[in-house]
Specification:
With 155 residues, the protein is mainly β. The protein is 6% helix and 38% strand. The protein has one domain (7-150): Immunoglobulin-like (Sandwich), CATH 2.60.40.790. The strands form three sheets. Strands 1-6-5-4 form a four-stranded mixed beta sheet. Strands 2-3-8-7 form a four-stranded antiparallel beta sheet, with no helix packed on it. The protein has a two-stranded antiparallel ribbon with strand order 9-10. The chain starts with 6 loop residues before the first helix and ends in a 5-residue tail after the last strand. InterPro entries: A-crystallin/Hsp20_dom, ACD_IbpA/B, HSP20-like_chaperone. Keywords: Stress response. Belongs to the small heat shock protein (HSP20) family.
Length: 155
């Protein structure tokens, strides 16, 4: 029996997990790129931040797009032959990359900032008012005008 490591799927999902959608395509298990490294942080109830290590890239070399609940970060560095030089060791990759993240419904990108070689992409979950929990009053026939209140809490 073959076991699957689901951690690459969980790392690439922000907000509510879409496991069934991701499990429909088993080829995604082999597509876990490791460059550039990144963190996903949760700040508060509905705020998230993706931080990617993009040393050597400037704002002009990076592009961020959101389409169909997918956040895609691309980096393409234009090589300047005049600056190539003779390297004895070249450990800073500066290679082109494309990293995609599946976003849950109602996750919006609120901004991006590049500082000290780290690209920060801020996200927020904006649940529409119609989908938020609401309080429903329950009236009992024998309570002579007394009203009991049932509160729905978000999970």
């Amino acid at each position: 029996m073959r076991t699957f490591d689901l951690s690459p799927l969980l790392r690439a999902t922000v907000g509510f997990e879409r496991m069934m959608d991701m499990l429909d395509n088993p080829a995604r298990f082999d597509e876990a790129p490791s460059y550039p490294p990144y963190n996903i942080e949760k700040h508060g109830e509905d705020d998230y931040r993706i931080t990617m290590a993009v040393a050597g890239f400037s704002e002009e070399d990076l592009s961020i797009t959101v389409q169909d609940n997918a956040l895609t970060v691309e980096g393409k560095k234009e090589r300047d032959q005049a600056k190539e030089g003779n390297y004895l060791h070249r450990g800073i990759a500066e290679r082109a990359f494309q990293r995609s993240f599946r976003l849950a419904d109602h996750i919006k990108v609120t901004g991006a900032k590049l500082e000290n070689g780290l690209l920060h992409v801020d996200l927020v979950r904006e649940v529409p008012e119609a989908m938020k929990p609401r309080t429903i009053s329950i009236e009992s026939a024998g309570s002579a005008g007394r009203t009991q209140v049932l509160e729905n809490k978000a999970a």
